[in-house]
Amino acid sequence: MSRILNHRMRMSLKKTPSIVDQRAVAFTIWTGRSVLFNRPVPNHIPRRQYGMLIARAVRGVLKIRYLVLGGAVGGGMTLNKKYSEWKDGLPDMGWLNDMLPDNDQWDRFTTTLITAKDRIGDQLQIGVPLTLSVSDPRLREAGRARAAELRDWLSQRYEDAVAAAAVNNTSIEPAPKIVNNLQSKPAPQTASARTAAEEAAAYEKRVHVLQEEVLALQARYQRELQRLEQENRELRQQNMLLRQGRQPTTKKMKRSLIDMYSSVLDELAGWESGEAGRLPRVVVVGDQSAGKTSVLEMIAQARIFPRGAGEMCTRAPVKVTLSEGPYHVAQFRDSSREFDLNKESDLADLRKEVELRMRNSVRGGRTVSSDVIAMSVRGPGLPRMVLVDLPGVISTQTVDMAADTREAIKQMTKQYMDNPNAIILCIQDGSVDAERSNVTDLVASCDPQGKRTIFVLTKVDLAEENLANPNRIRRILEGKLFPMKALGYYAVVTGRSRKDDSIQSIREYEERFFRSSKLFKEGLVAAGQVTTRNLSLGVADCFWRMVRDTVEQQADAFKAMRFNLETEWKNTFPRQRELDRDELFERARAELLDQSAELSAVPPPAWEQRLTAELWTSTHEKVFGGIYLPAAALAHDDVDKFNTSVDIKLREWAESELAKQSIQAGRDALREEFIELLARSQDTDPIYEPVKRAAVEEALNRHQWEERAQDVLRVLQLNALQDRCVRSRGEWDAAVALMETALKEKRDEVQRELRDMTGPGFRERWLRWTSTTEEQHRRAEVRTELERLGSCRPSLAYDEVVAVRDNLRRRGVEVDNEYIRETWKPVYLNNFLSRAQSRANDCKKSFYLYSQQNGAEKECCEVVMFWRVQAALRTTANALRQQISNREAARLDRDLREVLDEMAADPELKKKLLSGRRVELAEELKRVRQVQEKLEEFIEALNKEK
C-alpha cells in the first residue's frame, strides 16, 4: 500500500509540486511516517507539527474575532432599528418647546410675565374640555369643577408673582434697564452703586425663584393634564361599551352579608320543595291602606313605592334588601341602573318602574300576582335585612277586581307566613276600630304563640286625636286587646297624609309628636316602643338573631337533599351527564345548526333528483287533468288539433300556475331533505328531538322563497316549453318512460275507482269469499253494456245512451240517462289510457323516423308533449337547485337561528319541549348545589363577622 502511495506521490510531484507538498505534510503529520521515502519521520517533523497546530489555533482565534465583529455590527444595526422604532412610537412633545421659555425670554421675564400667565390660562381652557365629552352629567360637572379649581389656583399664583414684581420695580430702575443690567458689566464700586447692585442681585434671585416656581407649576399642570386625559380615555371606552349594549368591566367588590343572603333567597324564589322558603325574612302584612308601604319606606328612608288614591297599590310581592352603603341608591335585581334616592327625578322614575312591573305582572285579567319584584336599597345607616311587602288583605271585592282576588291575597299571605322562620311584621291601622281588622286573625292562625310576630300600630297621631279613651291604645300596645301574641309592640307615625312630604320631614314630625303627646308623656308606653327608628332596630336585631339560629340547619337540610338527589341520579341515569334544561337546549341548538350547515354539502345530482320528483308529484294532476286529457278529448284523433290545444294549455299553465307550483315543490324538497338530515344523525340524544322538531317546523313555516324567483322561473319555463324538437335518443326514451309511468299510475287509479263502483271480479269473489252490493251489481251491468257499445268518444250521444238504457231494461236493470253517463266517464278513461299505453309502447322505436322527418312525425305527438313537460321540469329543478345552494339554504339557516333565539328566551316553551324525570332531576340538582354553595359562603362570612 505504501509503495502505491509513493508512486502516486512521485507522479503528482512532477505535475503540481505545491499540492504534493501539502498532501505529503498532511499525511506525515497524520500517520507519523514519511510518504515519499516510506520511513519514520525525522526529528524535525514534530516541530513542524507544533507549528501547524499553532497556525490552526491562530486561524480559529481570527475566526472568532470575525464572528464577534460581525455579531456586534449586526446587533448594533438591530439596536439602532429598535431605537428608531421606539423613538417614532413616543408621543410628540414638541408642544413643550412652545410652553417653556428660552434664554431670551428669561432675560425679558419681567416684561413677559403677564403674557406667560395668559398663555397658560389659554392652555387650561383648551385642556379642561377634554373631560366634557363623557355622556354622564355627573362626570361632566366633576370635570368642570376640578378644572375651574386648578385654573383659579394658577391664576392666583401668577397674580401674586406679578404683584411682587411690580413692588420691586418701584424701588429700582425701569425693567428694561434691569434686564440689561443682569448681563452687563459691573458698574464702579460707589456706595450707591453697591446698593443698586445688591438690590439687582436680590431681584435676580427672586426672578430665579419665580422661574423655578413657574416650572414647577407647569410640571404640575402637565401631570394633571395627563391624568385628566387618561380619565377621559377610560370614560370614552366605557361610553363606547354602553353604546354597544355591553357593560364595562367592573372590579369585583366584596359583597356584604345581606347581599349574599338576598342572593340565596333569590335562588329559592319559586321553589316547590318542602325545604324551600324556610330561610328567615321579614314579611310585611296588614289590611289594605293600613300603612304597610309607609312603614317600609320609613325603614328604607326613601319614598320608593307608588301612591294610589283609595285603590290597591301593591299588586305583587316586593322583596326589598336593605344594606348599608356610602350612597343612598336603589337597584332592581335584573337591572344595572342605580336610582339616586336623593334626587326627586330618580325617585319618580323608580316609582314609575315599580308601578310598571306590577302592572306587567297582573296581565291576563288578574288583580294580584305572585311574581316577586326584587330590589335592593343601600344607604348610610340603613339596617341590614330582607323585607317582603305583600298586597293588603281586603274584606270586600269591587267590580273591577278579579273574582278570586280576596282569596288569592289570603292564600299568598298565608303561604309567606307559614314559613316557620319568617318574621311577621303585622301592621295595624290605629285610626280605625280594632274590630275591623282582617289580618290579626290570619296572623294568629299562623303564629299562635307569637314567637316570630312583631306588631306595629300606625297612624297613632290620628288615633290619639280621635279616640275618647286613650287607654285603648295602651291595651293594644300591651297585647291585651287583639286575640294574638307578639314578640314586641311598636307605635309609629308614618306621615300626615301628604304625598310630597319627605322622609326627613315625616321623621321630624314623628319625633315632635311623641315628645309632645300626653299619652306617652304619662308613661303609658315605654320609650323603646315608639318611632320607626326603634322599630327598624328591633326588627333588624330579631332578623339576624333568627338567621344565626337557623341558617346552619338549613344548610344541613340542603346538604342532605343534595346527597339524595345525587344518589337517585347515579342509580337512574348512571352513564349520563347532569345537564339542566338550559344546557340541554344549547346542545340541541348546536347539533341542529351543525346539521343545518350540512344542507350546503348535499351534492347537486341529489338535489335535482329530489326536486324533479317533487315537481312531478305536484304537477302530474295538472298535466293529465288540465292538459293531456282535455287536449286528447278535444282533438279526438286529430293530431294538429291536439298539438294546438297542447301549446295553448302549456303556455297558460306556465304563465299562471307552474312557477308557483315549482316554488312550493322546492319548499317541500327542502323540508324533506332537512328532515332526512336530522333522521340520519346516529349519535344524537333522543331528548333533543322535540326541540329540533319544533324548531325545524317553525323555521320551515317562516321560510319564504324570494319573490323574484318566480319571475325567473317563469321565463325559463316558457322558453323550455316552446322547444318541440327532441334532440337525442336518450331524451326520447326518457320521455317515453315518463309517459308510460304516468299512464300506468293514472290507469291504476282509474281501475281502483271502477272496482269500487262495480265491486270485486269473479276470481276475487271465489278466492276471497267476497260479494257485491246491489249498487255495485247495477254499476257492473252498466259497465258491461257500455263496453259492448265500443264508443271511443269522451261523451255519449243521446241515441247511444237510449240504446244502453233499453238493453239494460230488457235485462231487468232500471237506470236513468245520468246514471249511464256517470258510469261512462271512468270506463272511457280506462279505455283511453289502455290505447295510450299501446301507442307509447309503439313509439319506443320511432325516434329514427321522427329524426328523419325533422320533428314533423305526427304519430308520436304525445311523446313530444311529455318531453316538453319533462324538459321544463328539468330546467326548473336545475334553477331551484341553484337558488337553494346560493340563497335559500342560507336564508333557512338564518330563520332557524332566529327561531332558536326566540325559544331560548321562552322558559315556558323550553320547559314544555324538554321534560321528563331526567330533566327535572338535573334542574333540582343544579338549584340545590347553587343554594348550598351560597349558603356555605354566607355562613363562612357570618362566622368571620362574629
Task: Give the mean pLDDT.
Answer: 76
How much of the polypeptide forms β-strand, as a percent range?
A: under 5%
Shape: elongated
Helix amount: 55-70%
Q: In angstroms, what is the radius of gyration? A: 52 Å
Q: What is the strand tally?
A: 9
Biggest sheet features: 9 strands, mixed
Strand order of the largest sheet: 4-3-5-2-6-1-7-8-9
Count of runs of 4 or more consecutive helical residues? 33
Low-confidence stretches: 4-9, 12-47, 122-136, 167-190, 272-276
The secondary-structure class comes to mainly alpha
Q: Ends: how far apart?
A: 101 Å
Structure report:
By secondary structure, the chain is mostly helical. The protein is built from 33 helices and nine strands. Strand 7 (423-429), helix 14 (439-446) and strand 8 (453-458) form a beta-alpha-beta unit. The longest helix is centred in the N-terminal third of the chain and has 53 residues, at 191-243.
